[in-house]
Amino acid sequence: MTPLRPDLELISEWIEPGSRVLDLGCGDGTLLKHLAEHRGVSGYGLEIEPENIVRCIRNGVDVIQSDLDEGLSDYFDDDSFDYVVMTQTLQAVHYPAWMLKEMLRVGREGIVTFPNFGHWRSRMQIALGGHMPKHASIPYEWYDTPNIHFCTFQDFEELCRHEEIRILDRCVADYLHRSSLGMKLLPNLLGEMAIYRFTKG
Fold first, then answer.
1. How many CA atoms lie within 13 A of 188 on its CB side?
2. Would the CA dihedral through 52, 54, 57, 59 be positive or negative?
3. Beta-strand pair 165-173/193-200
4. Helix 30-39 to helix 6-14 angle, to the nearest 10 degrees?
5. How many domains does the chain have?
6. Which of 24, 42, 122, 126 has its CA 20 to 30 A from that of 188?
């Protein structure tokens, strides 16, 4: 079983014991397995990769093979979960605003993590290097990246205001999931990734 990443540790602290959780793009089910064992949580994972489906089953995680761009209505009714989690995937779906609405349709709260394309390294690489950013938190070439929507923390928060989504918590960190005073003061410039918890406005 993959060790729990620091961002998943924080997410698990945000989730109340005994809750129902849906994990979108759940990978091998690491988060759901941890939540079941340590927080008494029940729920499902959605995953598209067949090898991850097998890993989820081996880890005792209930999983559905699904493409997130097709939505959640085929599987879940309104208010089916307490929390809907999506880590490092929002920037890779075709319609992020619609996906946030779907998360809050089926869940009371949503939790997302995503990389910040406004980080100073990204800005410098575009301004001085003349090419698309590539560094530890964005490790892909422009031609093979799964990221199709490049956004900053400010972009995400403006989207939430536009869609009447209320942000409850935010944690800004580097690619190793460490935070600092500088990131708290200038998150959009110094933060490499963020974790947001939100609900309906």
1. 9
2. negative
3. antiparallel
4. 50
5. 1
6. 24
Residue at 124 is within a domain: no
State which residues form the domain around 63: 6-116+149-200
Give the C-alpha separation, 196 to 198, whole Å: 6
Q: Cα 180 from chain centroid?
A: 21
Q: pLDDT tens digits, residue range 107-127?
A: 999 999 988 877 667 777 677
* Residue 64, both tokens: 């559905």
Distance CA 17, CA 174 (A): 28
Question: Over the stretch 61-79, which tens digit does the pLDDT of each residue have?
Answer: 999 999 999 989 989 999 9
CATH number at residue 26: 3.40.50.150
The three state secondary structure string of the chain is CCCCCHHHHHHHHHCCCCCEEEEECCCCCHHHHHHHHHHCCEEEEEECCHHHHHHHHHCCCCEEECCHHHCCCCCCCCCCEEEEEEECCHHHCCCHHHHHHHHHHHEEEEEEEEECCCCHHHHHHHHHHCCCCCECCECCCCCCCCCCCCCCHHHHHHHHHHCCEEEEEEEEECCCCCCCHHHHHCHHHHCCEEEEEEEEC
